[in-house]
Design brief:
alpha/beta; 6-stranded mixed beta sheet; elongated
């Protein structure tokens, strides 16, 4: 059954309005009696369409179960905003991998201006990717912040890592050893121009751990996907529960 995300739960019913209603009513052409899975708060709700009206669709909840599509670790990706459609690529692929939240930031070497970051479109891409891959929660994307704000957020994480081309000793494998269920992990990826030495030292001073990704220099969008994938693998998420 197709999956839809909604937080608009009313007792034994979901009431879909806005984009969610338009998607199910007009794109999927739902009719009374049709069955869908509504994802909300990490649960999958087996639902039956009760009515499709001009501005809303109502679904009755038949049963619910914990979503199998959510990791048991939480990963937040902080990423320097990128040019063109690279931001869209990053959020789409990292949503599929299980990222819980995205925080775009601006650093000294960013080649994209904050006003060019299309948050509304990014949010739609996240929602589409989450539906396609069977997520149980809709990842959130914050507003673009300066890198200085990123430094202040590390206390809420169990571990924080960032790839840095000048780091030659500390491997990502070592930094990700021993991940346990429930861990809250932050991954920080620089923009096309990478981090300045001063920015890297401030990240380290604030509690982030610099790691090397080997001898090859990866594009920023590639690094985002590669590191999130490595976190999920080391965290035991690439197996059937």
């Amino acid at each position: 059954m197709k999956k839809i995300f909604s937080e608009n739960k009313r007792g034994d019913f979901f009431e879909l309005v806005g984009d969610s209603h338009n998607h199910i009513a007009f794109s999927l052409r739902a009719r009374p009696g049709d069955r869908y899975v509504v994802c909300s708060g990490g649960k999958d709700y087996d639902c039956k369409v009760e009515c499709v009206e001009k501005s809303r669709t109502v679904l009755k909840i038949l049963s619910s179960s914990p979503s199998a599509g959510e990791p048991d670790i939480s990963v937040t990706l902080y990423f320097g905003i990128l040019k063109g459609d690279k931001n869209e690529y990053v959020v789409q692929k990292c949503t599929e991998l299980g990222t819980a939240a995205f925080v775009p930031f601006v650093s000294q070497n960013c080649e994209c201006r904050p006003e060019h970051f299309k948050k509304e479109r990014i949010t739609k891409i996240i929602a589409s990717a989450a539906q396609q891959c069977g997520r149980g929660k809709l990842p959130v994307c914050g507003d673009v912040v300066p890198l200085e704000e990123v430094y202040k957020s590390f206390e809420s994480y169990d571990r924080v890592i960032f790839p840095y081309e000048r780091e030659r000793a500390a491997s990502a494998e070592t930094a990700l050893e021993g991940i346990v269920p429930g861990e809250n992990i932050a991954v920080i990826i620089g923009s096309e121009g990478g981090f300045t030495e001063e920015e890297a030292q401030k990240l380290i001073k604030a509690g982030a751990r610099a790691v090397t990704l080997g001898d090859r220099i990866l594009r920023a969008e590639t690094a985002s996907v590669a590191v999130v994938a490595a976190v999920m693998y080391e965290g035991g998420q690439w197996k059937i529960n």
